[in-house]
Amino acid sequence: MATSLAWFSIWPIARTAMLLVFRRKLFWLLFAVAMLSFIFTFGAIYLLATLKQELPQMARFITSMLKDLDGSGTTYLNFMKLQGTVMMILLAFAGSVLAGNDHSRGGFMFYMSRRISLVYYALGKLLAIGLLVLLITTIPALVLFFEYGLLGDMAEYFRENFQIVFGIIGYGLLLSLSIGLLLLALVSWMPRPVPLVILWGGLFVFLPILSSVLAETLRDSEVNLEESSWRLLDLWNNLYIVGSKFFGVELPLFYGAIIVIFTVCLFSITAIFFRLRYLQHQS
Amino acid sequence: MSHLFEIDSLVHRYGSIFALNEVSLSVDQGSIGLVGQNGAGKSTLIKILLGLLKHTNGTVKVFGSDISQHSVGLRGRIGYMPEREGIIPGLNGIEYVGLSGELNGMSRKIALRRAHELLSQLGLDEARYRRLENYSAGMIQRIKLAATLVHDPDLILLDEPTSGLDPDGRAAMLALLKSLAQRPGKSLLFSTHLLGDIEHVCNHAIIMEKGKIAASGALDLMLESQLNTFLIRWKNKNSSSNDVYLAALKQSGAEVSLSEEFGQARVVVTDAWSKQQFFKLAKEAHVTLIGLEPEEIDLRTVYQRVVGYKKNLPPVISLKKPEVSEVNS
Amino acid sequence: MTLEPSVSVSASPIVEVKNVSKWFGPLMALNGISLDINPGITGLVGPNGAGKTTLLRLLTGQSKPSIGGIRICENNAWSAKAKSHVGFCPYGDAAWDEMPGRKAVRVSAGLHGFKGDEARHRTETVLDIVGMADRAHRPIRTYSKGMRQRIKLGQALIHDPDLLVLDEPLNGIDPVGRDELNELFIRLAQDGKAVLISSHILNEMDQLADHIIFVCRGKLLASGSLETIRDLLDDYPLKVRVSCETPRRVASLLMELDSVKSVRIETSDDLFLEVQNPNRFYGEFAEFVLSKNVDIRGLKATDTSAEPIFDYLMERSSKPG
Amino acid sequence: MKTTLQFSLFASCFQVFGLTLRRQFFSRQTIVITVLLGLSLAITIVWLASDSYVRAPMRGTTTYYRALSPETNAYYVVGDRVEAESVVCVVQGRRGGKRELKARVSGVISEIIIENDFKVSRRETLVRIQPDRTGLQLAGKILQPLFMGFLLPIISLGYASAAISGERTSQTLVYLLSTSIPRSLIYFSIYLAVLLLTLAVTLSCLAALCLIIGTAGFDVCYKYTPVVFLATTCYVSLFLLFSALVRRATFLALAYALMVETLTANMPGVVKSITVSFYANSWLYDKSLSLGLESSIPAYDPVGAVSSQIILVLAFLSFLLLGMWIFSRKEYD
User: Fold this and answer.
1) Which of A27, A134, B327, D288 gives 20 to 30 Å between its CA and that of B56?
2) Which candidate from D40, D54, D251 shows the least CB-CB separation from A221?
């Protein structure tokens, strides 16, 4: 009997999913808004570089002012964090399109009755979401990095900061894996767009406020805000902490953050598996 | 060659409802019709054959290997056309069929080439780049069939392929299924509640009722006609001549039962009767006879006899109930 | 107990469609359609994508014609006034799934402006008519296709409309349910309502409808009762199959009948006739059988249903000119 | 002749109102929104009930004595008020190093666990302070970021954006459109139903959040209610307009509510004047001057209270009328 492996099917599923998302006009509107801050940063770096040529002394003053554009690891780290909040809405829409509308007109049955199993279906969709996340966070960050290097003193900057590239890619992969799993789990349980949007928005706005309020009041007097373990409730912040490790930046609560992210991913995987099995029997 | 599929005391329960209740069946290659009311268990049986549903107990073997172990591998050799829509809105025709091929292990290039061939065969040439949500019901059924056939499966499972089709679509679909049924070495399972379609396409029929196999056998076995029973149809100027004609028929020894439709009756005559008698009596009663045909039992009558739906039912002909039915023995 | 008959004795037809065309961008969905609909059952028949649904949406005021006008009981179909005369059963089985059937019909009564016990009275009346009085307490999502269809029909009947528009009401319903619904439609037509049924299942339609409208590719091919259409197509050959022992002899004899256009011997004992005027043929055939003492084993007209007529009209409409 | 229909337009509009209210209330949005409301109440309760502690930072045997309270010049006792960042006690290490321990929050000392001159070990709690929860803190900490910034737009979009586009996707809109009610009145009845439902949820949530901190909350609640009322009215009419225009209204509404509001809120120039929250915040800012809340309202050169009210009312009316006009023209498939 032929093997029951179907690794070949993952890329077609991902490709089709992304194709479906790109065909929606609303996606490009949301994508344009998501790229707004990238364009501003791109322009700022460009202005800064030209300024360094014409008025060197002015440039020193401005770079001291604009600390977060000094080309170090934190520049890109903060950029990717800012992109995250804007990406959140885009992902809610993409999630409901690439996974949600499979359940609307029997698409799920189309996949399941082929020579694949639901594991490969989930992996394909996850790859699609992951690539979207990379498209919005990692690729723009890499563009900014190379722009910064090319416009500035090229050789020296690249040689010195080349590990930033690994930082950007590492943080991007971390984001796409964890957010991808979480979104896929949420969408398979709640394919209808309205409740999905509210829940997903709540996750990214609610939890940060919850964790900052709890941290601020329940922490000991000496422990400053960022070290209180209540901050671990804010998933977005955990990703930021673990991501900054890739850039060699040490932030408190690192191990706590890793554990939280790991449990969230594990929980999402089991949620996806049980839901898809239920849908397969149900439809 | 082993059987196409063998099912042994299959039971499947949704909570307390028995979707399938002790089904035992073994069928060889060929085109099989699966007939039954909505909810008789047809779709459940198909999903179990596909390995999408873990049946409660019993063993199911397809192409000789157990479905619960090799469901993914087996699905590579089976094509399934679902009853519910089963399309992905947003894709166009070629991409949809191409994807179906790729998901069955074909490379992208071969899948797309095969898709182009199939679409032209199924008359969807000009619709190949149109989005699926703009397809009419008939085109959706044909594109789903194309997606089912793209990887050249040995067994095709069709769940209500003709529902929602207009007459041309239905006639075209049935002709297509007929040609598919004749492909050497390939078989086809055609599940529907439209009884007429089975006679066109299949050579073997399974009648299901409330999760059980009510009857299963070769189609021609089931459909032998009864001698000297006729269905007559006539037109007349006024209704009085109607009764005159019927009375005349009864007098000359025919047993007449009126059918619901106006101007139609089922007549059982003795062997001595000559056909001219119908015309002679009609002429005397000033009635023009426009239809006289020996009553072939069609599947509908067999179905109604076995399932017992119609109120005034002619006597049930004994169908051999299959404990283990060796169908093509 | 049926709804008190409201026979509107209006000379003019209930629906007047005057030279209506409808475009969706470049796509021409309807092209110059003019027709009237009178009380009784009217069948709207055509292949998928022929423009049936577009016509129904125009009749029920869901969309406006690009040119031309539609008047229902003397007011424009798009206006709210016209909709009080129209009961619409949309395609598919979308409904307020969480609501029990009785509540859904009660809400429809409210939507048409009935209050308190007037609404309750109408709800019970309509539930009786569609035969759901005792089964309407569970939520609609648990209903079979047939029961959903009956509730939808009840909702359309609640304000006692003159025109009842049903979009493929029998689609996907098993034979038993189909027959019961047909009987219901006939009863409604006898109440004096105009019942417009769109469908592509032809053989049901021609036993049911006393007036048929054929639509294809947005154009009106023919409209009238089946017989009037048949007489309309006088050069349309009627196909009859005759089975007998000695086909060759019978064939040569049959050729002499002038109403017989052509004879073809199909199998060992079957003849396939193409016949001119059907009524004249049957008279001559009876004479022939008796006079020539021929042993005929079967006589069957092979195209009593509207299907072949439909194919014929389709292919005639696609011929240029 | 035909039986005259006891057709009353008011009854049918009232039925549309009732149907929309019922369909929107018994829907998944309500479940998700109640979850979010429950969570925000939980946050407020936790924020309210949590005490602040002063703990010994150093290891080893240390002597500890309380500092002198500036007014009474005596040691702090239970019940004294303490200002934030003021020294509460001093700990002396073995080698004589002194450490002043400050209070994180202003409030009242509720318990002194360790008396003077006692040995303390590391991380042992010395003093427990009951922080005072003023309306100011509530507004700044909970109401502004959580309620005005997130819950209010989300609840409005949850109900309003699904009212018509939800019916379209479930293909039940045709049941409304095939009745003999003029379409603009159908739209108006739907608007009233959604507004009533959204107001009920938002105002009760506001009341719950405010009153939980006791009497101090009354004033804040009194100040916030008119702003929330008008902001909700405006949000609902805007999102219902989206719902009548576009099939995917929910995403457009969310994009507006979260992206545009966050991105444009702190942008210079005229851009920010397209957001409802800007005017709501300006009005709040104006009201809060008397309440001393101004520091916690994020409004960048706000418009006056009266003009923001006028703009909000104009916006709400124009969205509503535009919606009615479009709904009576548009052909919904």
Assistant:
1) B327
2) D54
Instruction: Name the nearest CA neighbour of D284 among D133, D147, D106.
Output: D147
Strand C219-224 relative to strand C27-37: parallel, antiparallel, unpaired?
Answer: unpaired
Distances (CA, A) of B266 to B250, B292, C241: 12, 10, 19
CA distances from B178 to B122, B141, B203, D47 (A): 14, 16, 10, 73
CA pseudo-torsion sign D207, D211, D215, D219: negative
Is the pLDDT reported for residue C230 higher than 90?
no
Domain-located, residue B286: yes
> Is residue D102 packed enough to be buried (19+ CB in 10 Å), middle (13-18) or exposed (0-12)?
middle
**Selected residues 209-268 of chain A with any CB under 8 Å from a CB in chain D:** 209-210, 213-214, 217-218, 220-222
User: Which residue segments constitute the domains of chain C, with CATH numbers given?
Assistant: 15-230 (3.40.50.300), 234-317 (3.30.70.920)
- Cβ atoms A151, A45 nearer than 8 A: yes
d(C-alpha B5, C-alpha D22), whole Å: 51
B91 shares contact with chain C (CB less than 8 Å): no
Q: What is the pLDDT of residue A27?
A: 87
**Predicted confidence band at C226 (pLDDT cuts at 50, 70, 90)?**
low
User: Is B38 in the same domain as B111?
Assistant: yes
Q: Single out the residue of B54, B39, B191, D169 nearest to residue A282, CA to CA.
A: B54
| Res C133 pLDDT > 80 | yes
d(CA D216, CA B270): 103
- Domain coverage including residue B50: 3-217
Q: Is the ipTM of this complex over 0.85?
A: no
DSSP-derived letter for residue B92 is B
> CATH for D57-123, among 3.30.950.30, 3.40.50.140, 2.40.50.100, 3.40.1160.10?
2.40.50.100
Cβ separation B235–C311 shorter than 8 A: no
Tokens of B23: 């089904």
Give Cα C15 to chain centroid, integer Å: 16
For B71-97, how does the pLDDT look when each residue is reduced to its tens digit (9 = 90+)?
888 888 899 998 877 888 889 999 999
- Tell which residue, B186, B203, B182, B208, has the closest CA to residue B39: B208
Which residues have a Cβ under 8 Å from the Cβ of A140 and sit 6 or more positions away? A35, A38, A79, A83
Q: Please tell me if residue C296 touches chain B, with a CB cutoff of 8 Å.
A: yes
| Total count of domains within chain B | 2
CATH number where B291 lies: 3.30.70.100
Strands C163-167 and C194-199: parallel
Instruction: Identify which of C84, C96, C114 has the shortest CB distance to residue D172.
Output: C96
Residues of B in contact with A24 (CB under 8 A): 90
B10-69 pLDDT, tens digit each: 888 887 888 888 888 888 888 888 887 777 788 888 888 888 888 888 889 988 888 888
* Residues of A in Cβ contact (< 8 Å) with D146: 206, 209
Q: What is the dihedral of CA B63, B65, B66, B67, to 10 degrees?
A: -50
Which pLDDT does position C9 carry in this prediction? 44
Residue with token string 């990406």:
A87
Using a CB–CB cutoff of 8 Å, tell me whether B235 touches chain C.
yes
Exposure string over C219-257, b if 16+ CB within 10 A, otherwise e: bbbbbeebeebbeeeeebebebbbbbeebeebbebbeeb
Subunits with 3+ Cβ pairs within 8 Å of C are: B, D
Residues C258-280 have pLDDT tens digits of 778 888 887 777 788 887 776 77
Q: Is the pLDDT of residue B4 over 80?
A: yes
CB-based contacts of C138: which residues, under 8 Å, 6+ apart? C100, C101
Residue B320 lies in a domain: no
Please choose, from the candidates C206, C243, C199, C248, the residue with its C-alpha nearest in 3D space to the C-alpha of residue C228: C206
- The pTM of this model reads 0.76
Please give the residue range of the domain that contains residue A125: 2-282
Mean pLDDT of chain B: 78
